[in-house]
Amino acid sequence: MKTQQHQQIAELARTLGHAHRLNLLEQMAGAELAVEQLAQQCQLSVANASQHLQHLRRAGFVQTRREGKRVLYRLSAGPIAEVLAALGQLSAFNRAAIRELMSDSLSAPEQLEGISREELLERLQERSVTLLDVRPAEEFAQGHLPGAINIPFSELQQRLGELPTSQEVVAYCRGPWCVFSRDAVTALKAGGFRARHYLAGVEQWPGPLQG
């Protein structure tokens, strides 16, 4: 049952995974509008707007009613406005985290430099370092750095005991602007580990990924 629920949520998320659809929903937040009005407000062609609206209607985000020759669209019942607001808040939070990371890189670059690619490759060949992927498990399964172990950042505090204390731990995430690796290093050091970042992450790895 839980898996089925997650699949349904994933389908809803996929429907929302387009900027035009989010824009269309925002336009309908306070008004019932015809497709021509929505297309004009979102700077889309009527055909393109109609296509996106059909996706939203099939997923249950919008409802329609006919008024003469016009078809009017409105938000469906349910917490759709709250979902849009929550996504906006999450986006603002992520932007703030990126600004903080950029500020830190300017004020204390030595703290964010971490380990270089060349040193990491050398240490991996020597097997003198533990490479820790702190991305979600599904991303790890799609491809990860050779020899890495996966402990998602959300589980790190509870699973520190799975890491060897005799080696330095190098944490990595998606890329330079993913804050999980930086936060993981903070948590690792607080737990008594020697730890550094590999900030380039998966995005800039020079060789093939495992997975």
Automatic annotation (TrEMBL):
One of its GO terms (molecular function) is DNA-binding transcription factor activity. InterPro entries: ArsR-like_HTH (IPR011991), GlpE_sulfurtransferase (IPR050229), HTH_ArsR_DNA-bd_dom (IPR001845), Rhodanese-like_dom (IPR001763), Rhodanese-like_dom_sf (IPR036873), Thiosulphate_STrfase_CS (IPR001307), WH-like_DNA-bd_sf (IPR036388), WH_DNA-bd_sf (IPR036390). Pfam families: HTH_20 (PF12840), Rhodanese (PF00581). Gene3D superfamilies: Rhodanese-like domain (3.40.250.10), Winged helix-like DNA-binding domain superfamily/Winged helix DNA-binding domain (1.10.10.10). It comes from the Bacteria. Residues 125-211 form the Rhodanese domain. Residues 1-95 form the HTH arsR-type domain. This is ArsR family transcriptional regulator. It comes from Pseudomonas vranovensis.
